Amino acid sequence: MITHPQELADFPRRWADAERRGDVEALRQLLTDDFTAVGPLGFVLDKQRWLDRYASGALVHDDFAWSEVTVRRYGGAAVAVGVQGQQSVYEGRDLDGHFRVTQTIVEEDGRWKLAAVHLSPTGAR
To answer: What is d(CA 80, CA 71) in angstroms, rounded to the nearest whole number?
Structure first.
């Protein structure tokens, strides 16, 4: 069991930093093996496909901000809700936007890891 509440409090910042940098190795450590992402248009990505976007160079962030984050813990799991703002390019296409994001964070092997993320567009640019 994780006894350091600060690790959970720091998790959203560590995740956002790794996303901003496109740091595949840091993200590999932060995501569960069965990680699932639901994108803003309903597509689903597993861990490998999430990481491949960075490893291939297809996804590049000029800016990536994770704000208005609240984290609620439920035993060995937690839910984080926040706003993701990004200036990004994917395969040459503009992906700038703002999204309401829900993360499911779980305790695994004494560490907090991201098991799922769901993005919904807010309409703001």
So the answer is: 4
CA–CA gap between residue 87 and residue 38 (Å, rounded): 19
Task: List the domain range (segments joined by +) for residue 72.
Answer: 5-121
CATH number at residue 20: 3.10.450.50
Domain count, the chain: 1
47-66 tens-digit pLDDT:
999 999 999 999 999 999 99
Q: Give, in degrees to the nearest 5, the angle at Cα 56 between 53 and 57.
A: 85
Q: Two tokens at 88?
A: 């990004």
Q: Give, in order, the Cα–Cα distances in Å from 47 to each of 16, 23, 31, 33, 75.
A: 16, 14, 7, 7, 24
Where do runs of H (alpha helix) occur along the chain?
5-21, 24-30, 47-55
pTM reported for the whole predicted model: 0.91
